[in-house]
Prior knowledge:
Blueprint: H1 2-9, E1 17-20, E2 26-31, H2 42-54, E3 63-67, H3 71-83, E4 86-91, H4 97-106, E5 111-112, H5 123-136, E6 140-142, H6 149-166, E7 172-176, H7 181-193, E8 198-204, E9 238-242, H8 244-258, H9 264-277, E10 287-292, H10 306-321
Parallel strand pairs: 2-10, 3-4, 3-6, 4-5, 7-8, 7-10, 8-9
Antiparallel strand pairs: 1-2
Helix pairs in contact: 1-2, 2-3, 2-6, 3-4, 6-7, 8-9
The structure holds 4'-deoxy-4'-aminopyridoxal-5'-phosphate.
Keywords: Pyridoxal phosphate, Transferase
Cofactor: pyridoxal 5'-phosphate
Pfam families: PALP (PF00291)
Amino acid sequence: MIEKxxxxxxxxxxxxxxxxxxxxxxxxxxxxxxxxxxxxxVRPAYYILKSAIESGRITQDTTIIESSSGNFGIALATLCKxxxxxxxxxxxxxxxxxxxxxxxxxxxxxxxxEVRDKTGGFLLTRVDRVNELLREIPNSFWTNQYGNIDNFxxxxxxxxxxxxxxxxxxxxxxxxxxxxxxxxxxxxxxKEQFPNVRIVAVDSVGxxxxxxxxxxxxxxxxxxxxxxxxxxxxxxxDVVHVEETDTVKGCYQLFEDHCIFGxxxxxxxxxxxxxxxxxxxxEKRPKVVFLCPDGGTPYADTVYNPVWVKELNxxxxxxxLS
Length: 322
Ligand code: PMP
């Protein structure tokens, strides 16, 4: 298993960092969609599996279980397929249709929950189902992206180190949050290298991660209906919340300005950056980096579908009127 895993390692990380023209800041984008299966989440998937295999916690007949309707599930499914071990993702109706098809093609079995939890999301229901499966299936292993310290380690050693080594100085890093793995690992590694860097967490309105009230959310990847344990490790200076309608604007704006075809969290960070620096004046242009955790193609039915966007805008007008 270890040899097969090492061969996959060549496709994890070392993603491009590109400089973008901007009127007031020195802006860089880290293109995480260049990773295997198109997202940042292959980094923790790879690292968590590798460390559990090396320590003997995962063997050839282990069944891997994870709550993920998105990139982490796709990454785990791909790696488990390559390793020849069983994988069961627990998904929910917010999943984009192409991801569901892909998971069904790559996984041993797919579990889909249908009931919203008390916060209006599906996460808590998904986690309940994971716990049931762990009780039902012998030799099962929950990779647990929300609580596994190797989610932190993957980003501390991988993405965090790549960023730390790419800059001679850095003033701001904008990082979208869901499980909290990326921001915890990257923030700690960047603060080690650049003690004055400001870490800006980017979240969706309606996510409860930073203590704001829950609201129905439709764009996967960013935000959460619970506060993940792993976030305890993060060092965060500012939090910016973005409405989903503005996430869409950010995605289109980024494509128009820089030809980067990003997923939801990418557009969310790009929108957050425009707002954050709008009225700020600096003597010296600050160096700012943001992440592009996945690309736009998986969002062809949602963010990049004009009919879906119109429905989202209509829903948000109704909400703000009521
Ligand atoms: N952006 C995208 C597209 C993601 O899939 C995720 C993970 N769900 C994130 C951002 C947030 O990453 P993390 O889980 O490490 O907080």
